[in-house]
Design goal:
Blueprint (H helix, E strand, L loop, with lengths): L26 H14 L7 E5 L14 E4 L5 H11 L4 E7 H7 L4 H6 L5 E6 L2 E2 L5 E2 L23 H8 L3 E6 L3 H13 L4 E6 L3 H4 L3 H8 E3 L9 H9 L4 E8 L23 H9 L1
The structure holds iron/sulfur cluster and magnesium ion.
The site of magnesium ion has 9 residues, from helix 3 and strand 5.
Amino acid sequence: MSDNVVKLKPKDYKSDLKSVWCPGCGDFGVLGALTRALAQLELPPEKIAVISGIGCSSRLPGYVDTYGFNTIHGRSLPIATGLKATRPDLTVVCIAGDGDCYSIGAGHLPHAVRRNVDITLVVLDNFVYGLTKGQNSPTTPFGDTINKASPQQSDRPVNPLASVMAYGAPYVAQGFSAEMKDLAGLIAEGIRYPGFSIVNSLSPCVTFRGNDEFDRVRERTYHLDEDYDPADRAAALKHAEQSEGVPIGLLYKEDPPPACLPPRGSEPALGRPEPEWAQLLDQFRA
Ligand code: SF4
Ligand code: MG
């Protein structure tokens, strides 16, 4: 950033729209982490697009002062892919919930990974369908009886980290919304990484899983050691698949990064020329 450009603070990336998230929702921490990451990277807001699907978490594009698109359920990845393919100059952040990403739109995830689309997917994983009032989601733990609108969870849950590792994701991290600073670091590093990056963000739903959900999530997690090597794929798989809690930190970073879509530094490839705006407006006025 040149000397005459004012450095933006995290709050400068927030919009004026009043949040409708419940007080105490974990999503506030993820929003704070994202705006912190954008400020750390000194990204101009007009060069960022935040794309979401449907769900409580997918309201997030409205709360940031960047370009944004609240799309349809489970479809944020293909829309983000199309945007990044035509506007490689934009930083594209894809926002999804656990139901949105690992169930409704689960078919899109392996393909975004194998194409190695240069976007950052931030999943706000709260183990419940919050917007539709508390049904079990694909990440609700086995045997869980907490979700208000569902019987005991009798299905085995999706394992997000193991799934994306198996698909071949080159950057895989998991954070916790209560640890906003660390989560911001994981998101910033994911945006910096040239290729597909996913940050699964544990983001408690206090309304449908209770006020003690932050404590429960904390009990289920452990932090990767400081000397953990994220380039070690075998170690990453072991952490992703073991059943004694879930890891927090940068789990895997392929180094050197594989070729991504589009390559870094690509020019915008808009297929159609700019329309004659004046003529177009006249047509509508006629
Ligand atoms: Fe957050 Fe749950 Fe409220 Fe949705 S229902 S805003 S996930 S606390
Ligand atoms: Mg959810």
